[in-house]
């Protein structure tokens, strides 16, 4: 197992290098620069500013210097947040994004798998139609509509929960953003679970388990559910990375100081190093979570061998 993990991590290095290279040159090719929105500077001062941030060097030299710094764990200084490095900004925003995204994915997994399983066991009945209709509604309504709606109902009209603010991660401040972030994922997971569960319930090993006289609850939970979760596990890899790295809409609406807002602000301000730091963070999470997905596959399906 350890050898398999080591090989996967080594094989991911070229992928990560390609991502860094493409993102770096796409950011630099885009029109505009990090200091274009500021007032015009005298030529000699502008020259000194560009030299300070190594922006006067050839693009290839800039790329090599940046890559060398990344290999040492240095993402460079932020061009807009002058008193902070990119590493400090990401370290400040990541805990908030991790807390909200982690709770959202846990809620989505628990509720989505439960609803999908119930719908599959009641296929083509009223419960199935209600669950799937609700799931389609959750998929169709985007976050930027659902989040203000939840805020309006539970924050303004009922005054049960705060409408915005981080509050140091207090539970009251987490309820609305976590629910708004989890609702679309609940819908996707419920649909995936239902389809996979229906197929698994008609498999030969499930028929054999039933023929042995096992209770239906044991057949579903111990036998069918493992096989039905394989597509869900595949989906959870990138979905978890997306939620953990922060939803821009949710973080903006609820005032959460996560890395999602830093990413958007960096893109708008042409803060090259900040955007690159967010991209690398997301890419590393994707690679690691896909590795976790493959390892979980081996636990759910005995036919999968990690060699």
Class based on secondary structure composition and strand pairing: mainly alpha
Helix content: over 70%
What's the overall average pLDDT, rounded? 81
Terminal Cα span:
8 Å
Which spans of ≥5 residues are poorly predicted at pLDDT below 50?
none
CATH-level-4 superfamily name of the domain at 86-265? MetI-like
Write down the secondary-structure element order. Answer: HHHHHHHHHHHH
Q: What's the gyration radius in Å?
A: 24 Å
How would you sum up this structure in a few lines?
The chain is mostly helical. It has twelve helices and no strands. Helix 4 (86-121) runs parallel beside helix 12 and helix 6 crosses helix 7 (171-201).
Features:
307 residues; mainly alpha; MetI-like fold
């Amino acid at each position: 197992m350890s050898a398999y993990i080591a090989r996967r991590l080594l094989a991911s290095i070229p992928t990560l290098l390609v991502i860094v290279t493409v993102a770096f040159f796409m950011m630099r090719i885009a029109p505009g620069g990090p200091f274009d929105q500021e007032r015009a500077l005298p030529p000699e001062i502008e020259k000194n500013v560009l030299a300070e941030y190594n922006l006067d060097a050839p693009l290839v030299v800039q790329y090599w210097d940046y890559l060398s710094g990344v290999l040492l764990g240095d993402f460079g200084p932020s061009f807009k947040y002058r008193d902070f490095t990119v590493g400090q900004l990401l370290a400040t925003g990541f805990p908030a994004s991790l807390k909200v995204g982690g709770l959202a994915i846990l809620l989505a997994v628990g509720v989505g798998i439960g609803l999908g399983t119930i719908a599959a066991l009641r296929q083509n009945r009223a419960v199935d139609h209600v669950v799937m209709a609700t799931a389609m509604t959750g998929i169709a309504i985007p976050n930027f509509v659902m989040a203000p709606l939840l805020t309006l109902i539970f924050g303004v009209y009922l005054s049960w929960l705060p409408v915005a603010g981080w509050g140091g991660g207090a539970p009251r401040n987490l309820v609305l953003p976590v629910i708004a972030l989890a609702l679309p994922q609940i819908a996707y997971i419920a649909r995936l679970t239902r389809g996979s569960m229906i197929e698994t319930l008609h498999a030969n090993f499930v028929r054999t388990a039933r023929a042995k006289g096992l209770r239906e609850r044991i057949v579903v939970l111990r036998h069918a559910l493992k096989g039905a979760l394989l597509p869900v596990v595949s989906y959870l890899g990138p979905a978890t990375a997306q939620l953990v790295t922060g939803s821009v809409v949710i973080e903006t609406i609820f005032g959460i100081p996560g890395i999602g807002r830093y990413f958007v602000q960096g893109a708008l301000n042409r803060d090259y190093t900040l955007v690159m730091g967010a991209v690398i963070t997301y890419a590393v999470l994707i690679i690691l979570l896909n590795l976790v997905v493959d390892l979980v596959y081996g636990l759910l399906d005995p036919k999968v061998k990690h060699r």
